[in-house]
Design goal:
Length: 341
């Protein structure tokens, strides 16, 4: 009898063990407690510019004002930043802040007050950028083709910032080419202080309709970063350059040039609508005192996650073009793109 009861107990124990293995176990997740008493669960992605990003299964990505957070806990370590002299989260990473530490819980009883934390889970090396393509094709009573593409990537680490850009435009009406130009540039910034940087750059340009086989520009200058946050970026730089131009119908030229550059981007509606303006100006001293101005401006509208719709107006001005060419080229570009954040 005792042996029977022992066997029966073992069978019940095995059944309970199998059942427990088959039942779903609760998944651990991060928790955010707000000042109003609400509690949110999910995965803490990052905190930047006083905005905490929480990834959830029930509402996707949620943005929470950092000032509304009372305390939080994480299933894994959080990288928090408490900078001293440099308050900008991104710039503090560039300068190798020593206050970066890993914790799992933050709140009123923690060693570090929430108000002193300026960033969570930001990486010391960051890659951002956009890829945009557009075009059209018609046939029948009229035959037209158009294609344009642009890439812009920024790699930031410590005191360094590397900007890589490329653009290509092509247009055709019937058998006649109406646009064919391209540009590639590389720019390196070295920050000697929080906002002042030394820049070095190189640029290659081609334009079939301007009879420009190749324009090479190399130079250096001094720049100032007025603001650089997740929502707004504004910088201005000035310097000197050397310009070499090769044309199909006129003598080649080489000239020193004065150069300035401005870059601005602002999230009119953060993560949804962004305005941008970029321009470069050159004053070519030995090329008839030519004044050249290149400007791109427009709006990017996010349609789904990292995908966006792009409307852009490009202006190219050269007061001393090749013989028989106009001084101004304009283009309105519609396209779609992907943003790397």
């Amino acid at each position: 009898m005792r042996r029977y009861r022992l066997h029966q107990s073992l069978l019940w124990l095995c059944a309970l063990l199998i059942l427990s293995l088959r039942l779903p176990t609760p998944a651990w997740s991060d928790e955010v407690h707000l000042l109003n008493g609400d509690r949110l669960s999910g995965t803490i992605v990052k905190m930047e510019d006083d905005v905490l990003t929480l990834q959830t299964d029930y509402a996707g990505e949620i943005k929470i004002e950092w000032g509304r957070v009372q305390r939080l806990s994480s299933d894994g370590p959080l990288k928090i930043l408490v900078p001293g002299e440099y308050r900008d989260p991104v710039r503090s990473f560039f300068y190798g802040a020593q206050a970066l530490q890993e914790v799992r819980e933050l709140g009123p009883d923690g060693l570090v007050p929430l108000t002193d934390i300026t960033a969570i889970n930001l990486e010391p090396i960051r890659l951002t950028g956009t890829v945009t393509i557009g075009g059209n094709s018609t046939s029948g009573n009229s035959s037209t083709k158009a294609f344009n593409g642009a890439t812009r990537f920024v790699l930031s680490a410590y005191r360094q910032r590397l900007l890589v850009e490329g653009k290509y435009n092509y247009g055709q009406a019937g058998d006649q080419v109406t646009a064919r130009n391209s540009m590639a540039s590389l720019k390196h910034d070295y920050f000697i202080s929080k906002q002042v940087f030394i820049e070095s750059f190189g640029m290659l340009e081609k334009d079939t309709l301007q009879n420009l086989q190749l324009r090479t520009t190399i130079g250096s200058g001094l720049g100032y970063q007025f603001v650089e946050t997740a929502r707004t970026k504004l910088s201005l730089s000035i310097g000197l350059a050397h310009v070499s131009e090769h044309f199909t119908n006129s003598p080649n030229t080489q000239t020193p040039s004065g150069r300035w550059s401005l870059r601005w981007e602002h999230g009119l509606w953060p993560d949804r609508v962004k305005l941008f303006h970029r321009h470069e100006g050159f004053y070519d001293i030995n090329a008839g005192n030519a004044f050249r101005f290149n400007a791109d401006q427009g709006v990017r509208i996010t349609v789904y996650k990292n995908l966006f719709f792009n409307v852009e107006y490009d202006l190219r001005l050269n007061t001393q073009p090749a013989p028989g060419r106009k001084t101004t080229d304009e283009a309105i570009i519609f396209g779609v793109g992907y943003e790397l954040k």
